[in-house]
User: Fold this.
Amino acid sequence: MSTSHQLIALQLPFFYTSHPNLPTAPVAIVKGNRIIELSPSALQAGAEPHLPLRALRLAVPSLHVVPYVASDYQQATTLFYQICADFSDAVEPLSPNYVLVSLAGLNTHIGTLLLHTVFSAFNMPVVAGIATTRWLARCAATYLATQTKTSTPTPQLLEVSPATAANFLAHLPLHYLSESEIAKPAVIVQQLLCLGIKNFGQLAGIPDADPTARFGTTNGPLLQELAQGIDPTPLRPLCLPKRASVSFNVPIESGGISDAASADRVLVHLSTKLDTILAKRAQAARHIDLCLTYRHHTEQFQLQLATPTMQYTALLAAARRLWQRVNLAEPILAMKLQANKLEQPKVIQENIFAESKRTPDKLAQAIKSVHTRFGQNSLVTAGQLPISRREMVRALWEREHL
Assistant:
């Protein structure tokens, strides 16, 4: 996998219709009048996802229409998001069965490892598209999803590099425009079809001025960029991970960690790294785990904190408390410190009103010099100015009614 691939789009094609309470007959999951997903048996019977519901009923008389209930998929959705969050700090959920994950700064094999981890957890078809932009990654994943007609558990991966982006997009139909962030894609698709443009290869071949003249200065240039595989929309990480971990592997030639002093130095190092990660995410830890790897077995120790913390001193103190439970009988080959049940730190109410101890800024120093030279009444704040009777009556009314 090329190091230039920075985004992976993961999709579970039969996520909704794989619910155990659904019948084995052809099924369509609907929300209002919109088709969310068709089961493999419905696709094999001739149903097509882009048909309206009435046409689907005529095409497949045995079709079971099941309303979408979000609570039925909450547990599976949470597991899906959590697996992705374990691999990357930047995860953007697009739907319960569709996520974007940033691979920036990670090893090149992480995308494949993530795909197989999701596949092992759900044991259903999983497709993934990897590319440098969210548009290409989503198109690649959706392309694989549309080619999946059976529920046979298989993981599929499609990589689209900048060199192959034009060839990949050239034959894609225009309805893939819904995978982009352009406004009203269905309306734009209909307008392009009326112009005789059926795929992105034809769209890329028209002059630059034509899309701008027909679709405006915003959508016109964006259509040209999308046809070339360019997407300026960044990833929006909306799903924060629930755990964070840092590890230290001992070089084999050193023989391992065999004394408390060496272990404490590693704990200091791990606590510092964990503090940096939590501060970057603005999250606090409720549980701390210490995992030790020996030559033939592993040990894990857990500690629940009284209050969620993200401070280095508290993390190190918790790690040292866990270390006190360790019976060091043989050398340790690896140590991992893990923060679980992460949450946003709560602001202590008293801290809001605590007096600031920071050094006075330039404005405060200037006001002080004016007061020293011309007196305290020479410069006052707006709240200290006298108010008119009308303003006073209004203030009293707002205080009483609001």
Remarks:
- The chain has four domains: 7-159, 165-227, 243-340, 362-401.
